[in-house]
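Field log, afternoon session.

UNIT: design team B
ACTIVITY: writing a sequence onto a fixed backbone
BACKBONE:
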């Protein structure tokens, strides 16, 4: 498989070797992914993104971003990738359209084409009515939209966003999440964003990487990570059946798993997904199965398990 982003043993050390902000990271991000780089503040997320953009030089290791060497061809990376920093890269004293025209000039986009593209994007993002306002007069949600437009001007294959929903109100955060989905699904963009706000944005991810103290603890497709987690931590299956006591006794006698009774439900802690065996066993004894449910862990649960060293 070819990757839009791939690194090998990427390392960044600060303070004369005492702080490994990024520690031997091997990142693999496929085309079309919505990749969530998850971790608490200080985990190394921002440093890693700055390395990918060529804004910092690695202490060791290397990588490629959209086919370019992140060190030797960093200028080409920056021309080809849209980047949204955590701290705004806007000029508050410039008008919205002036700011976008300025960026278009920097990226070598002809002015006639730039004006058409800028108006189209401002209308698409419901910002055209604000095009003559100064950037500093915009709300935080509008400023985020403007930053996305600034990334899209050069039609990048890859978008990188550092804590994109930080500080947004709930409505603006929802609009921003809808925007990410649209950019991925309709326009085929590969998107990387860092966040520690899993409850806000974690559900968007097709792929994740969990960082802790500079290390990438785990990465991959969200569904595969959940399957790996279940295999390691065990499967919890809940059963609702009638008659309940008869079902509980039968499962306790016949299954080689831990079986418990709690609030009118049978809980089974298993080493594999034994739902089919449970259903067949109960049905063969004339017991009606009302519900048979495998508890799937949330991304937030998995994240905290890894952070506590329980995985």
């Amino acid at each position: 498989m070819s990757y839009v982003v791939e690194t090998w043993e990427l390392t960044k050390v600060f303070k004369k070797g005492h702080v490994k902000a990024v520690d031997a990271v091997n990142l693999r991000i496929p085309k079309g992914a919505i990749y969530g780089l998850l971790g608490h503040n200080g985990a190394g997320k921002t440093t890693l993104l700055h390395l990918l953009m060529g804004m910092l030089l690695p202490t060791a290791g290397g990588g490629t971003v959209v086919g370019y060497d992140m060190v030797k061809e960093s200028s080409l990376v920056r021309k080809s990738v849209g980047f949204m920093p955590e701290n705004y890269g806007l000029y508050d004293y410039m008008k919205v359209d002036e700011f976008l025209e300025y960026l278009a000039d920097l990226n070598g986009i002809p002015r006639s084409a730039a004006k058409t593209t800028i108006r189209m994007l401002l209308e698409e993002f419901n910002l055209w009515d604000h095009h003559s306002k100064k950037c500093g007069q915009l709300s935080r949600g509008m400023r985020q939209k403007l930053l996305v437009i600034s990334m899209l001007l050069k039609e990048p294959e890859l978008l990188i966003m550092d804590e994109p929903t930080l500080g947004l109100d709930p409505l603006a955060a929802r609009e921003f999440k809808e925007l990410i989905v649209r950019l991925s699904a309709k326009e085929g963009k590969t998107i990387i964003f860092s966040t520690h706000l899993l409850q806000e944005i974690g559900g968007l991810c097709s792929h994740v990487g969990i960082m802790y103290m500079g290390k990438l603890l785990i990465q991959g497709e969200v569904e595969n990570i959940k399957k790996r987690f279940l295999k390691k931590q065990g499967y919890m299956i809940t059963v609702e059946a009638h008659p309940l006591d008869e079902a509980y006794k039968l499962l306790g006698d016949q299954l080689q798993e831990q079986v418990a009774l709690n609030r009118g439900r049978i809980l089974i802690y298993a080493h594999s997904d034994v739902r089919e065996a449970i259903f067949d066993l109960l049905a063969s004894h004339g017991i009606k199965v009302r519900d048979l449910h495998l508890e799937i862990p949330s991304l937030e649960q998995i994240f905290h398990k890894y952070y506590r060293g329980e995985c």
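LOG NOTE: Residues 39 and 211 are 5 Å apart (CA to CA).
NEXT ACTIVITY: expression trials, pending approval
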